[in-house]
Amino acid sequence: MSNSDLMTPQTSPTSILFVCLGNICRSPLVEAVARQRCAEAGLDVRFASCGTGNWHVGKGADPRMLEAAAEAGYDLSQHRARQVRAGDFLAYDWVLAMDADNLDALLPLRGSQGAPVELFLPWAGISEPVEFPDPYFGDEEGFSEAVALAERAVDGLIARLQSR
Ligand code: 4NP
Fold first, then answer.
1. Closest of 92, 85, 67 to residue 77, by C-alpha
2. Once rounded to an integer, what is the mean pLDDT over residues 31-58?
3. Residue 78 CB neighbours (<10 A)
4. 145 CA from centroid of ligand 1 (Å)
5. Which stretches of 41-139 are DSSP H helices?
6. Which of 26, 27, 139, 140 has the fewest beta carbons closer than 10 A?
7. How many CB atoms lie within 10 A of CB 119?
8. Which of 20, 31, 102, 136 to mutate to test the pocket of ligand 1 (most atoms within 8 A of CB)?
């Protein structure tokens, strides 16, 4: 290893935390899709998810999300919801929020040394939509649309990680 290697700042993302509101629909879905697809692509990245709210802490994924994800080959059965904590901003390289409300809730928790907090879809190269729609109050179709959007975004995530 040369001196210049030692002085190169570590900027590559190696761990990513996805954040939504309840941690029972969008962020556990994205976590599962990212984990599975990155493993298939041979990328060594650590993924986790949490929510800014505490209503569902300890609960499994929403059954509608579980089913739509399973139909597409993603297993959410082991997921248990948790709330974001201050230590997350030091434990992960990136904290990626599903929508602007959650981004706004995260920023005051971050601290000056914390990981960058950004909106997930633009981070993954998607400009439309900018926010990941919340399927929780909608019908079944919204859950299968969430799976398709998560897959599209994870394609962008993989492209970003592979180009670093
Ligand atoms: P998520 O969806 O943030 O994608 O997990 C929601 C889950 C629960 C609620 C809202 C959104 N809720 O109001 O309980």
1. 67
2. 97
3. 9
4. 16
5. 63-71, 88-91, 100-106, 120-123
6. 139
7. 18
8. 136
Written as six digits, the tokens of 55 are 């209503």
DSSP 83: B
Query: Cα of 20 to ligand 1 centre, how many Å?
Result: 7
To the query of whether residue 50 is one of the catalytic residues in this protein, the response is no
Residue 136, ligand 1, Cβ within 6 A: yes
Cα-Cα end-to-end distance for the chain: 19
Report in angstroms the alpha-carbon separations of 72 from 14, 75, 120. 26, 9, 21
Per-residue pLDDT band for 76 (boundaries 50, 70, 90) equals very high
* Among 57, 58, 75, residue whose Cα is nearest residue 66: 75
Q: What is the pLDDT of residues 2-39, one digit of tens each?
A: 444 445 445 555 899 999 999 999 999 999 999 999 99
CATH architecture of 14-162: 3-Layer(aba) Sandwich (3.40)
pTM, whole model, 2 decimals? Answer: 0.93
Ligand 1 proximity of 31 Cβ (cutoff 6 Å): no
